[in-house]
Amino acid sequence: MSVLEARQALIDRYLEVRGQTDELCAPLSAEDQTVQSMPDVSPTKWHRAHVTWFFENFVLAAATAGYEPVDRDYWYLFNSYYESLGPRYPRASRGHISRPGAVEVGDYRREVDLRVVALLRALPDDQLARLRAAVVLGLHHEQQHQELILMDIKHVLSRNPLRPSYAPNTAPNTAPLLPAASPIEWVEYAGGVVEIGHEGAEFHFDNEGPRHRVFLQPFQIADRLVTAGEWLAFIDDGGYARHELWLSEGWAWLQADAIEAPLYWFHDDGVWWEHTLNGTRPVVEDEPARHVSHFEADAYATWAGARLPTEFEWEHAVAASQPDRVLRDLYGECWQWTSSAYLGYPGFAPVAGAIGEYNGKFMSNQMVLRGSSALTPAGHSRATYRNFFPSQSRWAMSGVRLADGQAAARAH
């Protein structure tokens, strides 16, 4: 690919990702886009503005001497957590921002797009080469927020007593994705010293490296995710009422919040129902169990006589998979909780400057999830990707893959 072709490819990719965000938000009214249903959820229009602010700061301002923002107040309203870039509006209060409205946020997006495309066309080759990494990071950042937009609006609409759908029959795939679930098969791995982490020139976030060696004991991992039907058996067996299954902090969380089932499930007239982006319908037993916290995932694993895999076991299992040891549902179903705390790999160090606040500052009180979900944008999944959330989080589309079930059964 020539330098000119590479430049145009970058512009095309920028416009494609930005357009995908607009398409995701098209079914939503201005009122939909303003609601914040809990502190972890951000209004849709805030997401739209924040990813635009990201390009203003890390691309336009970085490459333009004396850059004048589209609206300097937006830099306060739509900064997420970058301390080095100045003060920001409190996260838990983003739903209070009625102005700028959804239309004005759209105007902001279009103006920044015009400026970014003009910059990418005009920069000399050497300057564009230096800026390319920031543009590519911004596109992957926007893809993360595309998934957040869907996760967040799902929660927003679930709080409405009418339980409206995001877009009937047109939402990202949250309908049945599996054939009738077969019994779990346990795939064995010998363990030993293995290499973990990203290598190569393809894009990856800084927390996916450096590549390093890890020692693994021999282990087994389930060939598929835990299903909703299996989760119903956990509920029926008193899983949410048996303290011996739960970590102490998880038991306290369960009691304080009166948790009785996965998020978006409710019981009515003898039937378990689930709210989805496509609407509310009975729980489908052969689908993966979705929207469970790490606390719930760990309790279920204990009840099932198994455990959660470490993130290193998960990644090694994916890398070592062969035709005779097939792991299903790795991507495009649910993010999968692991038993690993979110920490930096040996030798990890945040990059210099504000962009170094992207991942490293959150390496405390978070657990790692691997894979991807039905809401993850296409092309945004890979074996080394490390998602992370606090143990009580369950508004993300998170599920469970078990480890060492046969070994635990033999031990008993």
Which structural traits does this protein have?
single chain; 412 residues; alpha+beta; Four Helix Bundle (Hemerythrin (Met), subunit A); paralog of FGE (formylglycine-generating enzyme); 2 domains; four-stranded mixed β-sheet; three-stranded antiparallel β-sheet; 10 helices; globular; oxidoreductase; SUMF_dom; EgtB; DinB-like
Please explain how this structure is put together.
- With 412 residues, the protein is an alpha+beta fold.
- The protein folds into 2 domains: 1-157, Four Helix Bundle (Hemerythrin (Met), subunit A), CATH 1.20.120; 184-402, Alpha-Beta Complex (paralog of FGE (formylglycine-generating enzyme)), CATH 3.90.1580.10.
- It contains 10 helices and 11 strands.
- The protein has helices at residues 3-25, 44-63, 72-77, 102-122, 125-158, 228-236, 248-257, 294-303, 311-320, 405-411, and strands spanning 186-189, 192-196, 212-216, 219-222, 265-268, 271-276, 279-282, 335-341, 367-371, 387-389, 398-399.
- Keywords: Iron, Oxidoreductase.
Instruction: Give the number of helices.
Output: 10
Low-confidence stretches: none
Helix content: 25-40%
Shape: globular
Mean pLDDT: 94
> Strand-and-helix sequence, N→C?
HHHHHEEEEHHEEEHHEEEEH
What's the number of domains?
Answer: 2
User: CATH top level of the largest domain?
Assistant: Alpha Beta
Report the structural category.
alpha+beta
Question: CA-to-CA gap between the ends?
Answer: 60 Å
Could you name the CATH topology of the largest domain? paralog of FGE (formylglycine-generating enzyme)
Number of strands: 11
Please state roughly what percent of the residues sit in beta strands, choosing from under 5%, 5-15%, 15-25%, 25-35%, 35-45% or over 45%.
Answer: 5-15%
Largest sheet: 4 strands, mixed
The CATH superfamily of the largest domain appears as paralog of FGE (formylglycine-generating enzyme)
CATH architecture of the largest domain: Alpha-Beta Complex
| Rg calc | 22 Å
Order of strands, main sheet, comes to 10-9-8-11
Keywords: Iron, Oxidoreductase
Domain Sulfatase-modifying factor enzyme-like: 185-322
Pathway: Amino-acid biosynthesis; ergothioneine biosynthesis
GO biological process, one term: ergothioneine biosynthetic process
